[in-house]
Amino acid sequence: MRSTLLLLSLSLLAPVTAAERPAAAPAAAAKATLAAGTYTGSWRAQDESTGKLRLKFSQGADQKWQAEAVFTYEGAEVPTATKVLKVEGGRVELTFSWEVQGVNASSTLKGEIQAGSLSGTYESTVNEAASAGRWKVDLQPAKS
Which band of pLDDT confidence, cut at 50, 70 and 90, is reported for residue 17? Predict the structure, then answer.
């Protein structure tokens, strides 16, 4: 009888003990990684001016990331020269220089990598002035 009471009391405590245990930590969500290819989208400045943005990412033989950027300003495409590219975990940072109407400038894009897209903020420096805004691009399907 005593052993039956002990078993019964242990079986009644088992659910409480299980409920008190911390749940197993969920597996860490896989971080999105940068995919090589062409991304297209747009940028929007704080003053509400907008334009198109095209970023192309590739990896060289040394597996180092390379980037090309082109954006539109007042409807005209502006080519750029990549200065810095950092791809770390789920983040990307790209700095490039450009010229519009004889004025030299640079922009730094900082963003998050999501499945098939990139988005974030940018800051541009033109002479002594600066502007900032947001951008978003989506990976385009590879052409066959």
Answer: very low
